[in-house]
Design a protein that fits this description.
213 residues; alpha+beta
Length: 213
């Protein structure tokens, strides 16, 4: 009886072990299938800024390079990008002159936005209304396509705090001025600033006569 009992117990343990091994195998197969079907996070856009400013990998319907979207690390020397190539020639010349001077100081001159298509500008405005809750508040940050200096190619948003700090000290010497107090990244060409300094900044775009049209 004792041997029979041991044999039965051994058989039961063996069956349980086989069941566990089989379950683990099935789990591994399911995980592999799911891993194949679900894209990894490294291949998807991770931030709203990327969907607005990065043409490569942008979700369907988002602005592309043809609308003025730019990849991370864009500089004022990237002629292949409409956001740079469609800027006013005098502004672009001043930006490139400033970029060379900044490089001598160890500052890489990058931009987050330059020229934009009307469709891109309208998208930004609609997003601002949704974010700030009203057209009045959104107007403090985003102009209409009809009045935006980005659409006309007369403005650039510089990237990185080092670039902004450099321009706040040296921009006037290149005719580049911050226009709005609430947008330390937004610069436009004011050639008279080379001799007379930059004009007084508007608190925000709603004070700019150009946006009142």
């Amino acid at each position: 009886m004792h041997r029979t009992h041991l044999s039965a117990r051994t058989s039961t343990l063996r069956l349980r072990w086989l069941a566990v091994v089989g379950l683990l195998a099935v789990t591994a197969v399911i995980a592999a299938v799911l891993g194949h079907l679900v894209p990894s996070t490294s291949s998807t856009s991770a931030s709203p800024a990327a969907s607005l400013h990065t043409a490569r990998g942008a979700p369907r319907g988002a602005p592309g390079e043809a609308d003025g979207a730019v990849p991370d690390g864009t500089t004022v020397f990237d002629d292949s990008l409409p956001a740079v190539a469609n800027l006013d020639p005098d502004l672009l010349t001043a930006l490139r002159r400033a970029a060379r001077a900044a490089a001598a100081d160890g500052v890489e001159f990058t931009v987050n936005s330059g020229w934009r298509s009307p469709a891109y500008q309208n998208r930004l405005l609609h997003q601002a209304v949704a974010e700030y809750g009203s057209e009045e508040e959104a107007a403090r940050w985003v102009a209409t396509a009809e009045t935006s200096p980005h659409v006309s190619g007369d403005a650039v948003d510089v990237g990185r705090s080092q670039v902004r700090a450099w321009l706040s000290r040296h921009g006037a010497g290149h005719g580049l001025c911050q226009i709005y107090e609430n947008e330390p990244w937004h610069y436009e060409l004011r050639s008279e600033a080379i001799d007379h300094g930059c004009p007084r900044m508007y608190a925000d775009p709603t004070e700019d006569p150009r946006t009142q049209r």
